[in-house]
Amino acid sequence: MRKLITGLLCMSMILVSTGCAVRSSSENENDPGIRIISTSAALCVILEKLDLDLVGVPETAFQLPERYKDVTKVGLPMTPDLEIVKALNPTDVLTPNSLQYDLKPQYESIGVPSTFVNLMSLEGMFKSIEGLGKKYNRVPQAAALIEEYNRFMEDYHKKIEGKEKPRVLILMGLPGTYMVATEKSYVGSLVRLAGGVNVFDSEEALLSVNTEALLQKDPDIILRTAHAMPEIVMESFEKEFKENDIWKHFRAVQEGKVYNLSHEMFGMSANLNYTEGLNYLQEILYEQE
User: Fold this and answer.
1) What does DSSP say about strands 167-174 and 197-198: parallel, antiparallel, or unpaired?
2) pLDDT at 169 over 70
3) Which of 244, 122, 131 minimizes the C-alpha distance to 187?
4) Residue 204 belongs to what H/E stretch?
5) What is the pTM of this model?
6) Which of 76, 169, 196, 283 is in Cβ range 3.0-4.6 Å of 219 for a Cys bridge?
7) Do 172 and 147 form a contact (C-beta atoms < 8 A)?
8) For residue 185, what is the enclosing H or E element?
């Protein structure tokens, strides 16, 4: 009888232990009850580095971390499916603050809490990472990312110190058109950190400017990137620069100082690919040296 009771107790302990070890992919191990949705691929990468699970991720052409491969898709970043979002019963929906004006009223209409994360610049992104670390008890993970950034920038500034700063025109392409990206955009903030001087100064991230006004700025270098549909946008840029006669009058065009940037590194939202982006800009901006 004692052997039987002992055996049953052991089996019970094994079952309890096994049950405790099982958790759904939507639960945060150290934060039961927290259900986070991310509507941005860049945010998903950050949240994975902060060791946070998600219950919802965006439909995106960007590759998401393996950790989130089976997580429910909530629609496109700019137009998330509100029915799916609400059905997931999130405790927080994380979205880039560039979409706050459009999406905040929609989240409020379905009664879900939301946080709009500053991804407009590297400085803003790391400030947001610090805040998310505190909010979700991930301070060490956030501190590690921030320390890595500070070390990189310290070394990077030494590399470009004393170099002549080129004047740069940044064109952000959209299907059917393009706009000028200022320092207030993410790509503009990278160019500034790389030592480039933006030929347009504005409080707006993107400006609509005619080509005559662009020509008057006489940039040393022209950078072109895409907000969406990069293949179509880059083809449009090639056609525009070939068929619009005014571009041949730009000194940067005459000297072959026109460069296409990857939308994955130089898109609208700050991301953890900044090291690759800044190293690439260093090669472009100081190629003559």
Assistant:
1) parallel
2) yes
3) 122
4) none
5) 0.83
6) 169
7) no
8) none
Residue 146: burial class (beta carbons within 10 Å; 0-12, 13-18, 19+): middle
| 62-93 tens-digit pLDDT | 889 999 999 999 999 999 999 999 999 999 99
Residues 6+ apart with CB under 8 A from 222: 168, 169, 170, 171, 250, 252, 253, 257, 258, 259
- Mean pLDDT confidence for 129-142: 97
Instruction: Scan for tokens 């990857």, then name that residue.
Output: 262
Q: Radius of gyration (Cα) for the chain, nearest Å?
A: 24
Q: Which CATH superfamily is domain 36-149 in?
A: Nitrogenase molybdenum iron protein domain (3.40.50.1980)
H-helix segments, the chain: 2-21, 41-49, 82-87, 100-109, 122-135, 139-160, 186-193, 211-217, 230-243, 251-254, 274-285
Query: Which residue in the block uniquely carries the two structure tokens 């880059």?
Result: 234
Higher pLDDT, 249 or 174: 249
Q: Report d(CA 236, CA 122) in Å as an integer.
A: 29
Q: Write out the H or E segment, with its range, that includes residue 273.
A: none
DSSP letters spanning 59-100: --SSPPPGGGTTSEE-B-SSSB-HHHHHHT--SEEEEEGGGH
Assess whether the region 36-149 and the region 163-285 belong to the same CATH fold: yes
Ramachandran class of 197: left when φ > 0, alpha when ψ lies in -120 to 50, beta otherwise: beta
- Whether the per-residue pLDDT at 191 is higher than 60: the answer is yes
User: Is residue 6 scored above 90 in pLDDT?
Assistant: no
Q: How many CB atoms lie within 10 A of CB 68?
A: 21
Q: What are the boundaries of each domain within the chain?
A: 36-149, 163-285
Q: Is 184 helix (H, G, I), strand (E, B) or coil?
A: coil
> What does residue 31 show for φ and ψ, rounded to 5 degrees?
-135, 70
Q: What pLDDT is attached to residue 288?
A: 53
Between CA 146 and CA 136 the distance in angstroms is 16
Beta-carbon contacts of 193 under 8 Å, excluding residues fewer than 6 positions away, are 122, 153, 156, 278
